[in-house]
Amino acid sequence: MSYNVLVIPEDFTKDEHILLPLIRRVLGDAGKPNAAVLVCRDPNFQGIGGALDYQRIKDEVVLRYPMVDLFVLFVDNDAKPGREESVTGLVGRIQSDLRGRLKNNS
Q1: What span, in angstroms and rounded, lies between the C-alpha atoms of 76 and 9?
Q2: Residue of 89, 94, 93, 88 whose CA lies nearest to 65
Q3: Nearest Cα residue to 5 out of 25, 104, 86
């Protein structure tokens, strides 16, 4: 059985060449050496604002790629106050949506 991973960078044009081998290595070390890892190119968020937009992540990524087993969101912290809380809040909302979808499909 395959394991599909979608890496969601804030701007793939700048980040994919670092993130793809990094995630492949981490997954290999975690026991998933044959995981299919892709970097999300569509949509290209082109910055932190788009990558942290709940509605865009939900509609343009999570709902668009239902075959994905693991979504990995990468954004720069940039030492901005509140950035970590923003990411944590977004992840919590998406996780809640996915759990609800799984319950409704059972």
Answers
A1: 9
A2: 94
A3: 25
Please report how many Cα atoms fall inside a 13 Å half-sphere around the Cα of residue 13, on the Cβ side: 5
Half-sphere CA count of 27, side-chain side, radius 13 A: 23
What's the pTM? 0.82
Residue type, 40: C
**Looking up tokens 């932190």, which residue turns up?**
48
State residue 29's pLDDT score: 97
Centroid of chain to Cα 102? 18
Q: Contact at 8 Å (CB) between 97 and 62?
A: yes
DSSP conformational letter for 97: H
Q: Confidence class of residue 70 from pLDDT cuts 50, 70 and 90?
A: very high
Ramachandran category for residue 73: left, alpha or beta (phi over 0 → left; psi -120 to 50 → alpha): beta
